[in-house]
Design brief:
This protein is α+β, with helices and mostly antiparallel strands and 216 residues long. It has 9 helices and 4 strands; from the N terminus they run αααββαααββααα. Strands 1-2 form a two-stranded antiparallel sheet. It has a two-stranded antiparallel ribbon with strand order 3-4. Helix 1 runs antiparallel to helix 2. The longest helix has 27 residues. Keywords: Signal.
């Protein structure tokens, strides 16, 4: 799945985003955000969802997800920007015994080793022979795992752990905290009700909240 073939996503309103991120688990939050953006998740692979979440993060916050790590050789801090446009495409399904996991495959999994076994069973393609956990790991296209990039100062490899879903949702939660702060400032200053404040265009709400903040 390349950026050109990702499902179309319409950035949700901030109230809709808040409702999605109120879910009790990270998986439910991710599914909720995707659903609020009009993206069906039943057949969507985890890697496809990760890429859509990165795009929604950019559309809603105005910036890309970025991670920073210090070089173990020279100590210089390097940064990598994660976008659907710059990340390598998934490896594809191929003709192996398993297919990449989808969000539907993760629904209702038991915990521990039983959950891993059940996920393998759900992703095994009928008629392609026995499958192993290594087979599943080989086709899992989620953007979660080790990332290696060159140090900007000395070019030595820098390794860090990445979870695109977690990072994108964390950025959206930070956005909601600023949103809640703006609502609080306007409610306290103007005594408007919640519906009136939420109906304001994002740019005007932020501008008015900045005026209130400056006068405090």
């Amino acid at each position: 799945m390349t950026p050109a073939t990702l499902p179309a996503a319409a950035p949700p309103s901030l109230p809709a985003l808040a409702a999605a991120l109120a879910a009790p688990t990270e998986l439910a939050q991710a599914v909720g955000v995707l659903a609020a953006a009009g993206v069906p998740t039943a057949g969507l692979t985890l890697g496809g969802g990760d890429r859509v979440l990165l795009g929604l993060h950019r559309a809603l916050t105005g910036r890309d997800v970025a991670i920073a790590a210090a070089c173990p050789s020279c100590g210089v801090l390097g940064e990598v920007v994660l976008t659907a446009d710059t990340l390598p495409p998934p490896s594809g399904v191929g003709d192996g015994p398993v297919r990449p996991p989808t969000y539907a495959d993760l629904a209702g999994l038991p915990v521990g080793s039983a959950g891993a076994a059940e996920l393998l069973r759900r992703c095994t393609v009928a008629g392609r022979g026995p499958a192993t956990a290594d087979d599943l790991a080989g086709v899992d296209d989620s953007l979660c795992g080790p990332l290696v990039f060159g140090c900007p100062a000395c070019a030595e490899p820098v390794r860090c752990a990445v979870d695109a879903q977690t990072l994108a949702l964390r950025g959206l939660l930070d956005l909601l905290r600023r949103y809640d702060r703006e609502i609080h400032l306007l409610a306290a200053a103007y005594h408007w009700d919640l519906a009136t404040i939420e109906a304001l265009p994002d740019s005007r709400r932020s501008r008015l909240a900045a005026y209130v903040e400056a006068e405090r």
